[in-house]
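ok trying this again, last paste got cut off
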Amino acid sequence: MYRIPRLTTRLRNGSRLYRGMSSTTRTEETLSLASKYILPVYARPDIVLLHGKGSYVYTENRKFLDFTAGIAVNALGHADEGVVQTIAEQAGKLLHTSNVYHNEHAPRLAQLLVTLTQRDGGLGFSPGSSTGGAKVFFANSGTEANEGASIFSVARKVGKDRGGASKTRIVCFENSFHGRSMGALSVTSNHKYQNPFTPLLPGIDVGTLNDTAALQALVTDETCAVIVEPIQGEGGVNSAEIEWLAALRSRQEICALVVYSDLPRQCGLYRTGMLWAHSALAVECHPDIVTMAKPLANGYPIGAVLMRDSVAETMTAGVHGTTFGGSPLACAVGVHVLSRLADPQSVAQINATSAYLQQRLLELPARFPKILESSIRGRGLIRGLGFLDETHPALVVEKAREHGVFLLTAGKQTVRLVPSLNIGQEEVDTAVDALVSSMETL
């Protein structure tokens, strides 16, 4: 049997050193291997991350504040002790069982998602509800949750059951992002992502976020589902207006499912200071289905679809499935992470930090009126700074990295801030100060 050459040796301090290399060449060797063996579909800076702790990550010789949280994934930061312990304990018991057998953690995570939604509000439940139910389907990513479990499998199955064979069309919105598999990409209305892979799936209608007047013609008797992000992260941290969401929901008269994609662009699971971005809204604004992934297991791959019982009742054995979804390890980590995020002290801390971040960000448009839009986008710990010049966001992200802070762009004109949910005021100050220093060079 072929054996991969052992490339490292352990040093006395516990770190690893590549054999035949000095520590100063470790980054160069890694980048060389990546260039030779990894498909070049990512435009990455020449940085190799070796380890992390809390909101910070480390290279060979530098420390960075990660104000991206792995694109809104690491809700509890890097190398969290509780997450590490949960992974280690479960890995020593049971990693994988397939969908043929039950495991003890998947039902507990599903119960937690449903009961927290009833407690905090969402999916048609007012806060504190004790009646009505919901079901969960576990997948392995946000794209998979959108692709198979909601917009195509569930939505089209329910559409045909309720409205006949012609009820198969799906509505999405400009500047959305729902994933890169063929179905999810078909409802990701962004030419940058779609053009290389056309023709995409038929039966997709595209609308404009917050255009209430267009909904009557957009959502028709042939529409089986409408998929929307309450806050568009990839598209520029654009928020759906409450009145528009209510008008969208009112189109249920033609029996179209409303799917809130809380995952691919990061606004669910307490990032806005509440369980779902729609939790505080009236039930008239609530969806039939919520898809999620991102922070649910703090970086361990998992996705999930939460749906009302009235939707779930149409899904029977054999209609949909996944080999890896709902694994013991993923769900054990999910229970741990979600239980901690849902703790009232954690929610209070998230909201306090969100308020402080908002306070600091509100200072910036007045300080840089020729660079920034006048308003701050987003809510909670998903924030966007809109720039007047489309060339500036990428420059600011690059300059901030030089100052030791990781940020993200979003759309064409926005810098996105999606830090770990347990950051404090010190990290906020570091990030905003780096933003200021970066914009001063423009």
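PB: full thing came through this time. Residues 122 and 278 are 6 Å apart (CA to CA).
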